[in-house]
Amino acid sequence: MKVLINSVVVILLASAFTQPDDSDFVTLKNTSFTKGEVLNYRVNFGFFTVGKASTVIENKVFMMNNRPSYKVDAYGETSGLVSWITKVNDQWGAYIDTAALVTHVSYRKIREGNYRKDEMVTYDHEKNQAEVKVLNKTTNVYGDPKYYQTPDNVRDMVAGFLYLRVIDFNKHKKGDTLSISGFFEDTAYHMRIIYAGKDKVNTKLGKIPCHKLIPVMPDNKLFDGENSVTCWISDDGNRIPVKIQAKMFIGSTGIELVGIKGLRNQLRVLL
Fold first, then answer.
1. Cα gap 176→174, rounded to integer Å
2. Which of 92, 192, 208, 265 could form a disulfide with 237 if both were Cys (CB 3.0 to 4.6 A apart)?
3. What are the pLDDT digits (tens) for 163-204?
C-alpha cells in the first residue's frame, strides 16, 4: 500500500520537467496560481478511499539564490483502516523561482512504515549541477553530498507540477504530442504527453470542464502499459489537476479533487 500512495503522489507532481534553453533563466507567463493556494485530493484504490494528498503554496515569498521564490509542499498519506496496515506520511517540498519556475532547493521527507528518508537537493543553475544530501538516521546529520549533472533550467517534481499549469492547452489539438525533458535522482529522460482533447469530470465540487492528458509511461514494473495513466487538468484560468487515474499491475488507483482554497481565478464549474 505504501507503494500505491507514493506512486500517486509522484503522478500528481507529474515529473521533474525542464525546458530546453540556454543557461539564463526564462521568465514564464503565469496567470494560473499564486501564494496561499491549497489543493486537497482523495486517494482511491478501486472503490475504496485509502488516503489523501494535498499541495500547498506558502502564503509568502522567500529569497533563494537572491531571487524571489515560492515555497511549495506536497503531502501524501494513508487514512482510515489502511493506516492500521501500513502508515504512509510523505512530504515533498521545494523553493521555486517565481519568474522562471526553476527549483533552487528541494527536499523530501519520506515516512512509509518503518522506512525513513530525508533528502535535501541544492541546484546550481550556472554549473547545471545538483547537490544531493541524505540525512544519516543514526547521527541525524546530513552525509557527504553527491553531485549530478542536470539539464538547463532544471525543475524538481514539485516545480514540474507548477510548470504543467502554465502550458496553454487550448493551443493544442487532440492527438498532439508534447515532449518534455525531465531529470529525477540521477537520470535525465524525455517524456511524451498526448493531448487527448477536452472532457468533463464529475467531482465533489461539481462538474468541471477539463483538458485530458495521457503521459506515455516508460516500461516499468508499476504501471500496466504505456497509456496506463490519464490526467484531467481544469479548462480554466487555474489549470489545476482535477483527477488522475492509473492502471497498475495491482489494480486501478487514482486521485480526485475534493477541496480548494486560495485559487488565483474562479474555478469553472458547469451547471
1. 6
2. 265
3. 889 999 999 999 998 876 656 666 666 678 899 999 999 999
